[in-house]
Amino acid sequence: MIGQSEMSLENKIILVTGGASGIGRATVNRLALDGAHVIVADTQAELAAEVVTEAKSAGGSAELLEFDVAEPGAAANAVKTIVTTHGRLDGAFNNAGITGPTVKLLDIDPMEWARVLAVNLTGVFSCVQAEIAQMIQQESGGSIVNTASICGLVALPHATAYNSAKHGVVGLTKSAALEYGPKNIRVNAVCPGFIDTPMLAKGAGASETVLNGVINSLPMRRIASPEEVAEAVAWLLSPQSSYLTGVAMPVDGGWTVQ
Ligand SMILES: NC(=O)c1ccc[n+]([C@@H]2O[C@H](COP(=O)([O-])OP(=O)(O)OC[C@H]3O[C@@H](n4cnc5c(N)ncnc54)[C@H](O)[C@@H]3O)[C@@H](O)[C@H]2O)c1
């Protein structure tokens, strides 16, 4: 129930892309608990509707907005829709993403490369561009968090397209922070490590041997829950992180310190 947290995001209008599952879903629930009105955006409308119901039954406020971040013009239209209804946009978590082909660079199909870049990098760019344009118009500042990955900081093998897109998200985050800091618009990235979501279940989690290898390689010797990433995102979106911008924050149980 609302009332257990500091409500630091009370009445803030916040867009979450990829809100139907995993890290996005946990973050929607966390932000709603903090008092925000959350716009749950995803291509999986049915699942996103379940998340809206979940957030509301916990006493929060949320609504569904179905769109594909990779579709040209979709992010701009989404922001327009939000502003028509709510008059403003205070924050955003640009989190929608897909895994890439798990093959070596020479074996990547150019179409697969293009799709991974379209969703994981251009999709984030389109959202950031539309969100910042609106925040400038409001003259109210704002806070944006993008989901990169440990693959935005280092490279995992057989993941060239994903690594490239996520490094791009870190570069995009820094560029946006640099240019719009004077407008009090903060732009940060989270870099999750191995998180227990449907995406992980399709990758490293699909094989017990691979998953055990991952767990043994982690300083904290466990994968994380999506709620642990949501905590970091909620903090980055909140006024409590008021002097942080351009940061690519690992939430990885120490994996990238090695
Ligand atoms: N799970 C991990 O271990 C991990 C680690 C590092 C980074 N990440 C990143 O975290 C983010 C969330 O991943 P997750 O693990 O929660 O995965 P997930 O598959 O559970 O959730 C991703 C969500 O994004 C949505 N989505 C995909 N493409 C979309 C599009 N074009 N437009 C709108 N929505 C779209 C999906 O429908 C899904 O609901 C991704 O950007 C992913 O790359 C995940």
Structural class: alpha/beta
Total beta-strand segments: 7
Give the number of domains: 1
The bound ligands are:
nicotinamide-adenine-dinucleotide
Biggest sheet: strand arrangement: 3-2-1-4-5-6-7
Number of H- or I-type helical stretches: 8
Set down the secondary structure blueprint.
Blueprint: E1 13-17, H1 22-33, E2 37-42, H2 45-57, E3 61-66, H3 74-86, E4 91-94, H4 110-138, E5 142-147, H5 160-180, E6 185-192, H6 198-202, H7 208-217, H8 226-237, E7 248-251
Parallel strand pairs: 1-2, 1-4, 2-3, 4-5, 5-6, 6-7
The structure holds nicotinamide-adenine-dinucleotide.
Descriptive tags:
globular, binds nicotinamide-adenine-dinucleotide, seven-stranded parallel beta sheet, Rossmann fold
Give a written overview of the molecule.
With 258 residues, the chain is an alpha/beta fold. It has a single domain, classed as NAD(P)-binding Rossmann-like Domain (Rossmann fold). Helix content is 45%, strand content 15%. It contains 8 helices and 7 strands, in the order E-H-E-H-E-H-E-H-E-H-E-H-H-H-E. The protein has a 7-stranded parallel beta sheet with strand order 3-2-1-4-5-6-7, sandwiched between helices. Helix 1 packs parallel to helix 2, helix 1 crosses helix 8 and helix 3 packs parallel to helix 4. It is globular. The N terminus is likely disordered.
